[in-house]
Specification:
The protein is an alpha/beta fold. The protein is 29% helix and 16% strand. The protein has a five-stranded mixed β-sheet with strand order 2-5-6-1-7, with helices on both faces. Strands 3-4 form a two-stranded antiparallel ribbon. β5, α6 and β6 form a beta-alpha-beta unit. The longest helix has 13 residues. The radius of gyration is 30 Å and the shape is globular.
């Protein structure tokens, strides 16, 4: 039993469309019972595609490697809220401009990943144990490391404005862990927290206390 497949589209070349039209008209293949042969137009180029409209603004013509118009608002929000949840685009690259502007202001950075961070309170502000990897024959050892934030604060130069704890993949953290990150600048006044809590079509940010559902009153 033979079968034939005919592709019908108004965007095919004229020679290919003419060949398929002839194949369809002269085919002697019996169609299954209950299935009707669909008639094709002899002039497939008469069919017009649908028109798609999109709304664009001036910001859509500015690449991610150029200066953004909202950098001033970004700096003021970092100083006001001290802990922000950011939502960069999926393609990445835009957050580098906002990071560099904080570097120009005199901030130093501590880059961490939320995956494998453990308990943020213990890792950032307390002496915490770390178990090195083993192959199954060595005993499980436990090493103790100093608090990440306190250790980095002790290494800051005198002219540094502060320390920015930039946490990627923060969307995997629980609400309690985000709440601690939101109040970390209150415990360490020279610390600012930037947590990547998701993605959006353009670079946007919100106060981390709002994302962690903490009251806005009593902020440092």
């Amino acid at each position: 039993m033979a079968a034939a497949c005919i592709i019908q589209t108004p965007f095919l070349p004229s020679s290919l469309s003419h060949t398929q039209t002839q194949l369809h008209s002269h085919s002697s293949i019996a169609m299954p019972r209950g299935v009707r042969r669909r008639r094709t137009s002899s002039t497939p180029h008469d069919q017009r595609g649908s028109l798609t409209k999109c709304n664009i603004s001036l910001g859509d013509f500015i690449g991610g490697d150029l200066v953004r118009f909202d950098l001033g608002q970004w700096l003021s929000d970092v100083e006001e809220h001290k802990a922000l949840a950011i939502y960069p685009p999926h393609e990445g690259g835009y957050e580098g401009r906002y990071l560099n502007r904080l570097i120009y202001k005199g901030y130093h950075f501590l880059d961490l990943s939320a995956r494998g961070l453990g308990d943020p309170e213990t890792t950032l502000t307390k002496f915490h144990p770390v178990c090195p990897a083993h192959v199954g024959k060595q005993p499980i050892a436990r090493w103790y490391f100093p608090p990440e934030v306190d250790y980095r604060l002790s290494l800051l130069p005198p002219n540094a404005k502060g320390l920015v704890v930039w946490i990627i993949e923060a969307k995997v953290l629980s609400k309690a862990e985000l709440q601690f990150l939101a109040i970390l600048p209150t415990l360490r006044p020279r610390v600012r927290v930037i947590a990547e809590c998701g993605n959006w079509r353009k670079f946007m940010w919100k106060p981390l206390k709002e994302i962690a559902e903490l009251p806005a009153t009593g902020s440092a």
